[in-house]
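Quick start: read one record
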Amino acid sequence: MNDQTLHAIVQHAYAHSPEVRERFDRAGLSPDDIRTVAGLARVPVLTKDEAIARQQADPPFGGMLAAPLSAVSHLFFSPGPLYEPGPEEDDPAWAIAVAMLREAGFGAGDVILNSLSYHLVPAGYLFDGAFTRLGATVIPAGTGPAELQLQMARDLAATGYVGTPSFLAGLLQKAEEKGIALSLRRAVTTAEPLPPALRATLVGRYGLEVINTYATAELGVLAINTGDGLAMRLLPEPLIQVVDPDTGASVGPGETGEVVVTNGSALYPLIRFGTGDLAMNIDPRPGESAQAERAIILVGRRGEAVKVRGMFLHPNQLRFAAAQVPGVAAVQAVVTRPDGVRDHLALRVALPLPAGEDEGEGSRAAVAEALKAAVQGVCRVRVDEVGFGAVERDGPVVVDERKWE
């Protein structure tokens, strides 16, 4: 993004987005103060928590929409949670995703098994539109049963896949066990980390070309990795900065900061939006590199939210879900990956114990089932296991015990 384009985006956002205007005014800034990419550092970062709070105080968009609702064709409720408009026909996110997929080797004649969710979140919709714009044929499988997806991939001769790497590994294992030959050649993985060992299995054992992507619900695809290592090359657009979470200033090469993004959407302009993701900044020519020459290595999340099977699990969401189940005194989520492939979500639950009474197995089973349903309803993540016992009231609500060797 050049300086002239950025200045035009800032002017439009200030004129049409109440959130941007209020943030600039609080900082004593006008659009004419931000004429260069370097000058963007003067704009306070809008954190994801602040965006959520704005929408809760002024639903549904918290002043972040820069057009009437009638201009919006799709509405999503993404992890966070945040209400977001879907990308319109002229949104730059489409062109960015199409160019990335074309560079990766996809094109007309490909048949794509799209295993990303089409329900509420924009991931499935975004990749669906990008692949069809490229001339490919899409199987909108969503998060349907693995057995059915395996059947569709075989019967329809799917040549490509997009979804989480853990689900892909499960499909390939099932196909191997059943002696089913698949036509898959390339896979786009996203929504969760891709450990080097799993990439090696997908490439070495199953012969796939793997394109691992870093994307967010609000901004689309931001970076990709097509080879070994953890570094993800930034796409040319939107404008991506890695900044000190406390000061908002860009960090130097090899330093870690928060990924902050400015997009070019006229409908939903996000100026210095903090993703909450922490990354190491890789810059071969500091001060001179084009964005597409830079890379990042994702190292974690700012705050307490943890991604489980592609969905964010936030302590506040878990607390809210547990509050829907009578008799739960405290709850803690523990995320592991025992087989190195699939996330395992377990809940530790403390029940109040009335004087002289012991909660029976039937009561525990009822609480477990009610809690599983509540967590899946609120957090959209299925619980694998519920155990009962002591839970530290002052301890972390979400514990991530996964190892990413």
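The chain has a mean pLDDT of 90.
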